[in-house]
């Protein structure tokens, strides 16, 4: 079964760092772009960026460039989203999702992780 | 960034109704458009890709059309599981964007 399994919920304080993960299984992890999507409480979906684990090519949304870092470790089939200094406004559900077609950068997301809730509060 | 505008923001309908949601792009995106359904507390689910291609396993009452800057998602006969929020997404540009969502409520 093709699936993405994300790390568990996090509660952090402003200024702390955080790295959440997304582990792929059931398919050739290095061959499919993986993206991250933010959903703030009660709000819509926001596309953050995508990474191709095969060569770690990354594209960021201008809204998130410099605010987060996307990475991947192909040896363990895992993609990451990290923050160096969290803010209260980073409180949201974060989803990882896989492109539908191998190696296709222009594509929709067909497989989604279950989401990781990140709460930032003092 | 390419902006995506959905209408309406909220739609009230009954089981069996035909429902249409519109998504407009700020510039031409050819047919690089997807539609997703999100139920409360769940991850989004892909319904339509390349504007009109039905994702495997999605009921045929869902259909998509359009190209360029104007697109529609149609549900031919609304079922109880269809009361959810729907998002369009363009994947034409360097950066991808979602519409703001359309919530389909029970009338």
Topology:
The complex is a heterodimer of chains A (122) and B (107).
Chain A: E1 3-6, E2 10-12, E3 18-25, E4 34-39, E5 45-52, E6 57-60, E7 69-73, E8 78-83, E9 92-99, E10 109-112, E11 116-120
Parallel strand pairs in A: 2-11
Antiparallel strand pairs in A: 1-3, 3-8, 4-5, 4-9, 5-6, 7-8, 9-10, 9-11
Chain B: E1 4-7, E2 10-13, E3 19-25, E4 33-38, E5 45-49, E6 53-54, E7 62-67, E8 70-75, E9 85-90, E10 97-98, E11 102-106
Parallel strand pairs in B: 2-11
Antiparallel strand pairs in B: 1-3, 3-8, 4-5, 4-9, 5-6, 7-8, 9-10, 9-11
Structure description:
The complex is a heterodimer of chains A (122) and B (107). Chain A is mainly β. Chain A is built from no helices and eleven strands. Chain A has strands at residues 3-6, 10-12, 18-25, 34-39, 45-52, 57-60, 69-73, 78-83, 92-99, 109-112, 116-120. In chain A, strands 2, 4, 5, 6, 9, 10 and 11 form a seven-stranded mixed beta sheet that branches. A four-stranded antiparallel beta sheet of chain A has the order 1-3-8-7, with no helix packed on it. Chain B has no helices and eleven strands. In chain B, strands 2, 4, 5, 6, 9, 10 and 11 form a seven-stranded mixed beta sheet that branches. In chain B, strands 1-3-8-7 form a four-stranded antiparallel beta sheet, with no helix packed on it. In chain B, a hairpin with a 6-residue loop joins strand 9 and strand 10 (97-98). Chains A and B meet through strand 5 and strand 10 of A and strand 4, strand 5 and strand 10 of B.
Keywords:
heterodimer, A: 122 residues, mainly beta, 7-stranded mixed β-sheet, 4-stranded antiparallel β-sheet, 11 strands, B: 107 residues, 50% strand, globular
DSSP summary, beta strand count of chain B: 11
Number of helices of chain A: 0
Greatest interface? A-B, 24 and 24 residues
From the spread of the alpha carbons, the general shape of chain B counts as globular
Distance N to C terminus of chain B: 35 Å
- Summarize the amount of helix of chain A as a percent range: under 10%
Biggest beta sheet summary of chain B: 7 strands, mixed
Radius of gyration of chain B: 13 Å
């Amino acid at each position: 079964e093709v699936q993405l399994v994300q790390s568990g919920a996090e509660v952090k304080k402003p200024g702390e760092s955080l790295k959440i993960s997304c582990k792929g299984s059931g398919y050739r992890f290095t061959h499919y772009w993986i993206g991250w999507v933010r959903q703030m409480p009660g709000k819509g979906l926001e596309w953050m960026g995508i990474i191709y684990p095969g060569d770690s090519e990354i594209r960021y949304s201008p809204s998130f460039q410099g605010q987060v870092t996307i990475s991947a470790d192909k040896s363990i089939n895992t993609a990451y989203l990290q923050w160096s200094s969290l803010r209260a406004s980073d409180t949201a559900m974060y989803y990882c999702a896989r492109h539908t077609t191998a190696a296709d950068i222009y594509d929709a997301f067909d497989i989604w992780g279950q989401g990781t809730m990140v709460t930032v509060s003092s | 960034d390419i902006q995506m505008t959905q209408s309406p923001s909220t739609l009230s309908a009954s089981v069996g109704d035909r429902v249409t949601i519109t998504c407009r792009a700020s510039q031409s995106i050819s047919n690089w458009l997807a539609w997703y359904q999100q139920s409360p507390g769940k991850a989004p689910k892909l319904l339509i890709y390349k504007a009109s291609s039905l994702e495997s396993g999605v009921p045929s009452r869902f259909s998509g059309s359009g190209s360029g800057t104007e697109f529609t998602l149609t549900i031919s006969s609304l079922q109880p599981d269809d009361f959810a929020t729907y998002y369009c997404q363009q994947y034409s540009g360097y950066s991808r964007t979602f519409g703001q969502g359309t919530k389909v409520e029970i009338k």
